[in-house]
């Protein structure tokens, strides 16, 4: 006789797949109103899953956003900020000395305890010195880079950025991993896609739960796409990159379905910060109806596209107005793995599963930081700005503009404006674009600000800032001789150490 | 035996239902990226039908837009413009003398020949003097008003606007049809909904094909909603109005389904012009990622939300990039009725059925007019501006702003700027927000402008402007004593005739 047998063991731990985009904006997906509507796979993902319309990053810049995601903590706590100036954004270029402190507990470190195999594909951005290597912070595998894919460099003043496989470099951008700045051609997204498919297959075969952090960067300037996607978008090169990502996400989800593990895999799609309007339209995306972009604490800088997908668990076609944060991905992932968050430190992320699975709305504020300055706070539909700053006049006069074509009197400011005594208040339901501050004299203003002020007091009273990691830069720490360089003949000579205060103009 | 019998006569003519919104913007629907996503019925309509992302009005103001829709012709041809000043927007306030000329052939007049019963519910706006009455221009039934629901007036300087049922008035706004300007409460959308449901039921029972033009105005300032919708939206009063409309559209579509005629009824949803940003956020909507709003020839003024729905004919979930126009609703409706458009005059609308049913992309330009001045032209993804004007400095200094919070150097201009020799050129795929004009020196610019210039020449060479209808205003023609006023005791005494040039400040 024909016999079909199933082994009915304990329920497998849920796989976790985080699809983190780089500089992709809220307005870049068809499901979020992008007028070219060129993201059929992501739109389908949203139709089968849940759309989060009020999801935020923890900082409008890449490194601190990623540090927050992986630690569940605000950058001001985990050290991913600078005190070199007031309210300055900082990240990890290759001359930065700091990185993720050993004292921080990263999501993959914790997931290990539940038997997860953890892989990062793409951009790490939490420090490139040996002590900051992702495999020293909980990841088991890595294919990608420690820094942005800027370049090409001359390997004398500045080395090209290395690409790692696990512990060792396997080449450098612009040398072994080509990016054609003229045409925008690079096949990196295809490499990252294949890495993801292979890892998922391997994990499915071994029946081990996995955490895959797919942190790709095709939408970060210099924007790139593979040859078969170049010229396929109405939106130009940036749209080509989005189309390739959309296609890749479709293939990953289909792969999960074909392997029969889509119901065992929680997938979350989001971005590290708002679209870089300064690079638009060729090298930057769209923040839809929101004000300004990357680098700012306006909605355009911090509100992110976000989709949760988990067939059989998340009701199809859901829409959530839960205020969410990349830091929640830390707590939610722990919850999926059956783990408790660390109790010895403040965790800012919350477990979103009640919002995702039961449609609950959890009351919590969103804090908008630049450096260690609390710029703004959202509670419910109200957002209070305590400081405003778009970018400096000096930079603005050079054509650097984080709010191109947008100018709201008294709101988009080119000096750092303090409003701590009378915060600027917006109602983000009536005014998602932050164009109409409420009157200071209105009762609505007074009630909302009183409520938010209470939240701020509470927040500040318990805040213990971490040691700032992004203050010191040194040419000597750049990627001259990453591990593995000998085998490739790609070791370069480092200059003398000469630590300096990092310059953070934004 | 049980016998089921069907009479198999000739196929019934397709009913036509146009849902025309007032001042609703491209960005006001969830399906178009509105962040509160409060339009589940319209989003469902889009999911079951086809979304048009590149659909335009013929003029960024109400009366000319509606005249264009019903005649299939640009306002410059059908007379719905003014020559009192250069490139001025004009409409039909109650002191305007003009209206739709008898020489124009309106859609309902033509549909009559195919046996249609035609009803207009809501705002007519093609002139309120007796010769312009909708029942003199092809409609069989009317419930609604000839003008905007502005007011309340004192009935001495200016009469309140009448509400008509068919030939006669049945009351006036603020008197018999209440609008509470303080709370925003008015039950008009419910009246318009019930009218639509009743008309549809009646037509279904009589087995006569119908054309229903549902031209409601809850989203036009003063914005209103019924009591049960007040306070239900994240977006404030404007959102309450949208929610009530969304609910009503859902009920209308469900009614068609319950009557079993949804497959025999072509439904199209769109708006007359972009959101009135000057009235936002309490009294105005959103144009999503687009520049400026109502009154302007930027995308925010003229690109409209648009959904086609016809179960069993239009494939569900379709997305079209066909450049469409409200004038196409004229030609498409004729096609649905098996009629040919008039051959004795220039028709600007095209039959969209090949785009809707077969997914064809028909190559055609979009002309953006203010008055009789061709301000801009779109061909493919390129848009050339020959004239720019947001609004005058004089008005701007009084706080009248059609582009609040938006300011694009050299583009949003407060004087009328001529660019006819070197048009400002945008690529609307890469730059839907019209923020980055292409360089005059680029090859891309030269090729695109050459192409568009050819279209402009062709257009202008054959253009025969109609007699301008919106030049003369006269207090004596206001709604003092509309037909039926005697029965109601609502006749008012008109002042002496004193014709003046109408003042068109915008």
From TrEMBL, chains A, B:
Question: Which Gene Ontology terms cover its molecular function?
Answer: arylsulfatase activity; metal ion binding; N-acetylgalactosamine-6-sulfatase activity
Per the UniProt entry, the Enzyme Commission number(s) are 3.1.6.4
Q: Which Pfam families match?
A: Sulfatase, Sulfatase_C
3-oxoalanine (Cys) modification, residue list = 62
Give coiled-coil spans as residue ranges: none
Sugar attachment sites are 187
Q: Which reaction does it catalyse?
A: Hydrolysis of the 6-sulfate groups of the N-acetyl-D-galactosamine 6-sulfate units of chondroitin sulfate and of the D-galactose 6-sulfate units of keratan sulfate
**Keywords noted in UniProt:** Calcium, Disulfide bond, Glycoprotein, Hydrolase, Lysosome, Metal-binding, Signal
**Co-factor(s):** Ca(2+)
* Quaternary organization: Homodimer.
Output this protein's name. N-acetylgalactosamine-6-sulfatase
Q: Lineage of the source organism?
A: Eukaryota, Metazoa, Chordata, Craniata, Vertebrata
